[in-house]
Design brief:
Strand content of chain B: under 5%
Number of helices of chain A: 11
Number of helices of chain B: 13
Helix content of chain A: over 70%
Largest sheet of chain A: none
Shape of chain B: globular
Distance between the termini of chain A: 29 Å
Strand content of chain A: under 5%
Largest interface: A-B, 44 and 53 residues
Order of helices and strands of chain B: HHHHHHHHHHHHH
Radius of gyration of chain B: 24 Å
Oligomer: heterodimer
Distance between the termini of chain B: 20 Å
Radius of gyration of chain A: 22 Å
Shape of chain A: globular
Largest sheet of chain B: none
Chain lengths: 274, 320
């Protein structure tokens, strides 16, 4: 119920954000019910204008664009979500480890991560993908590992503050093991900042995957995904057909929504400091 | 003065070390990653003989550290080896493309830096006004937009609807400077939108941070004129964070150029990198990747050094 109370106090911008994200979640969950056609079903001519049969017209192969958009929501959001989860798992695990153990472990881990972070992410991902090839698994692992460096930084900093508290000290003196301390003492207290960060990282990962798909190196056709759909239909724009703007706009729509919510969260966390 | 020189030398050394480590990663990472490079490029059907010949061509038969130093030595001399895809020397492929990329990135920087600083400053000075709110909302959305969304909107408006600028930015040596500028106006505008949004947000935050400090309040309470407070008291202290923001965003710009180049089919290094990744032309990927990384690290380093120079307090970290 605390959640609903919080929701009632939320500013308008956050509510708009929640609505924008909900639309996407509904599209991702009930995909087959919403989409009028199959994911790769060819229903008409190439780049037809919108009509009562094809709400948003058709794409470069004559597939229904609205259907592809709805399926794209599922594919793109699920992959970005899984990647962010993996990135958080790796990053916060290492970050908590570094903070609880301290000393040599912390120092060497931090140096390695500093060097990885000095490397532009997109370039790193491109080099890695040129070797391991473009599969969804490769995409998820490469991006999750790269992104976990940012999560590590935050979770280490947060956990460092918690690790010096009396209750952690008490647990240490009781002889609790490092795992137990990380799970039962540090994790619950580190949750609030990590949740806000999750939104930011999700946006970043989501845009990143969209960019890679747009470059033809991410999710491969015929799977519908928004970045790839922009790429496939890019040629239409020079004829004045606005097809590629729909999937590109869908990407923007979701990230704006998430950012609006994150902004509200950050404001709550920082106690309304500007 | 001695302190500053030691500090700068330290930072330079650290930056150099980072680039060396990155070059090792780029070079050896190719092997550490799962999958045999030769099989990956030639495909599963390749005969053992062709695989062996191909490994020899890539010098995969030598020990890793021998190859690394040979590669790095050649790289320093400007001999980047040959492309696997078309057998041309990589130096010929990269040279003029790199110049093009720098040309595009600097054009975008020249447009975006003054706009971003001015708007960020105004937003900070008139905090909470409708102007500030409008800026905050528009930067938030610009940050959330993928680069290609902005790029295609600009194409649809300025290239298709009003036929002012070309949607494909092809430039060559025969063109005059202004013809080149005309050709790259849309990609630079796209980059400007994205970078300005980031820079403006950070500039605003940096200046607000300075304006909130107690010596500014003191200056106001002393009864100084608003203009004098801003120019004499706030400006010197805001300089360091703002310079930092600018240099960091230039680093971001150099990498962000990759996607914009692909949208506008601009003959730059980013386009080459993306093409080579899809063709799995590993030597070209390594060379262009290292160049991008080196520029990025250098700009970050520059940000570091400039902010130390403009704020001597950073020479003596408080934690010690």
């Amino acid at each position: 119920m605390a959640f609903f109370k919080l929701l009632r106090q939320s500013p308008l911008s956050a509510r708009i954000g929640i609505a924008m994200v909900l639309i996407n979640v509904i599209a991702a969950v009930f995909t087959p019910l919403i989409a009028p056609y199959g994911e790769t079903e060819i229903v008409g001519d190439v780049w037809m204008p919108s009509s009562s049969e094809n709400y948003l017209g058709t794409d470069h192969l004559g597939r229904d664009l609205f259907t592809r958009l709805v399926y794209g929501a599922r594919n793109t959001i699920v992959i970005a979500f899984v990647t962010t989860m993996l990135s958080f798992f790796i990053g916060s695990l290492l970050g908590f480890f570094a903070a609880t153990l301290g000393g040599w472990t912390e120092l060497s881990l931090s140096r390695v991560i500093d060097i990885l972070m000095a490397f532009p992410t997109l370039i790193f991902a491109l080099i890695a993908l040129s070797v391991v090839g473009t599969s969804v698994t490769a995409l998820i692992v490469v991006i999750a590992v790269l992104d976990s460096t940012r999560v590590y930084r935050l979770s280490r900093a947060v956990a460092m503050d918690i690790a010096v508290m009396e209750f952690v000290e008490a647990a240490r003196l009781r002889g609790e093991r490092i795992w137990w301390i990380m799970r039962k003492e540090i994790l619950p207290n580190a949750m609030p900042p990590l949740v806000a960060e999750f939104g930011l990282r999700f946006c970043f990962v989501f845009l990143f995957i969209a960019a890679l798909s747009f470059l033809g190196l991410g999710i491969q056709p015929p799977t519908a995904d928004w970045g790839g759909m922009v790429r496939e239909n890019a040629g239409a724009i020079t004829f004045g057909i606005l097809t590629p703007l729909w999937p590109a706009g869908a990407i923007a729509f979701l990230t704006v929504g998430v950012n609006l919510i994150v902004d509200w969260f950050l404001q709550l966390a920082s106690g309304l400091k500007d | 003065m001695k302190d500053i020189i030691t500090m700068v030398a330290k930072r330079l050394g650290l930056g150099f070390l980072t680039i060396i480590v990155i070059s090792v990663l780029i070079f050896l990472g190719v092997e550490a990653l799962p999958g045999d490079v030769a099989t990956a490029i030639l495909g599963q059907e390749a005969t053992p003989e062709t695989l062996a010949a191909f490994r020899k061509e890539l010098k995969l038969d030598l020990a890793p550290h021998v190859r690394y130093f040979a590669w790095l030595g050649d790289f320093m001399k400007g001999e980047l080896g040959k492309s696997l895809a078309n057998k041309r020397p990589i130096a010929d492929l990269i040279g003029w493309r790199f110049a093009n990329t720098i040309f595009l990135a600097s054009t975008a920087a020249v447009i975006s830096v003054p706009i971003a600083i001015l708007l960020g400053l105004l937003a900070a000075l008139y905090r909470g006004s409708w102007f500030d709110n409008a800026i905050s909302t528009s930067t938030l959305s610009a940050i959330s937009f993928p680069e290609f969304f902005i790029a295609y909107i600009l194409i649809a408006l300025l290239s298709v609807k009003l036929i002012i600028f070309p949607s494909i930015s092809n430039i060559n040596d025969q063109m005059s400077f202004w013809q080149k500028i005309h050709a790259i106006i849309l990609p630079s505008l796209t980059l400007t939108f994205i970078v300005t949004a980031h820079m403006m947000r950070q500039t605003r935050a940096a200046i607000i941070n300075v304006l909130a400090s107690s010596y500014i309040e003191m200056a106001h309470l002393k009864g100084l004129k608003r203009m004098r407070v801003i120019v004499v008291h706030a400006f010197p202290n805001a300089l360091s964070p703002v310079i930092n923001v600018v240099a960091l965003n230039l680093a971001y710009l150099v990498v962000g150029v990759v996607i914009v180049e692909v949208v506008f089919v601009y003959p730059g290094l980013g386009q080459l990198l993306v093409d080579s990744v899809s063709k799995r032309d590993i030597p070209v990927v390594q060379a262009s990747g290292l160049i991008f990384a080196a520029v990025y690290v250098s700009l970050n380093l520059l940000a570091d050094i400039l902010s130390i120079l403009s704020n001597p307090r950073l020479l003596h970290p408080r934690s010690k």
